[in-house]
Amino acid sequence: MTIGPEQFFDPPFRIRHPESGPSALLFNSPHSGRTYPDAFLASSRLDPLALRRSEDMDVDHLFANVVEAGASFMSVEFPRAYCDVNREPYELDPKMFSERLPPYVNTASLRVASGLGTIPRTVGDGQEIYKSALSLAEAFDRIECLYKPYHRALSRQLTTAHRRHGFALLVDCHSMPSAAVTRSESYRCDIVIGDRFGTSADPEIPDQIEAYLRGCGYQVARNRPYAGGFITEHHGVPSSGVHALQIEVNRALYMDERRMERLPNFERVKSDLAGMAHDLAGFVADFMRPERLAAE
Hints:
Blueprint: H1 5-8, E1 13-16, E2 25-29, H2 38-43, H3 48-51, H4 59-62, E3 72-76, H5 110-113, H6 136-165, E4 168-176, E5 191-194, H7 204-215, E6 220-222, H8 230-235, E7 242-250, E8 255-256, E9 261-262, H9 266-287, H10 290-295
Parallel strand pairs: 2-3, 2-4, 4-7, 5-6
Antiparallel strand pairs: 1-3, 5-7, 8-9
């Protein structure tokens, strides 16, 4: 009997809160899941290490101490190569499937064209994942059992935070391959902050994060080459008091990208990100002052 995603991933994601309860500040790691179903591994033409190259490896551990800083933290257990929650619910590549896709499926996005849809066709370096075509039932099972529950839970966390504090901030946590920021001299950086070019968060928030990280010695860029994906765009509505931004950490700072092993610098980066979370929590507390919220 085949084990479905709802049974294999139990739970499919985890949420941790500080002792004070759900915080106005929510960190989220959607691409660090590292649990691979046996059936998925058997269906792939790639070895496990190649599949793992799509992971934001150890990002959940890099940001783990944000809870001690007073933030809530959500992380996904299933791998990005299996189901990518930083996409629309139905961004699917018709070349992957044995049946015709329904008309509501988005088959024309740039992400689908590159093989990186909701059910990815390729891993990050462009290698094809599957030996043969998938059934639509397999893809829709992952979307119904993993993708949709994850987004419902994320929305609930932000709604709860907003009701409790009058304000909510989502920080979506990712890592980027060093090659992505060394192709152009203008993009050389350690960390990229994405706020959808100023549309997903009040500009004071990324300003605060950038100032802190620069103070730690990091080179920080804004929105290039990463401005934020579906999560940032979909959940960040500053006019409603819910803000969202994305942080991309250069993998070369903390890991051997070829061997996928931590470097000695891992603990320093982790400590700096915890310090950033402490600083941001204090900034958020000031941002939520009643007189400021009333003025907004």
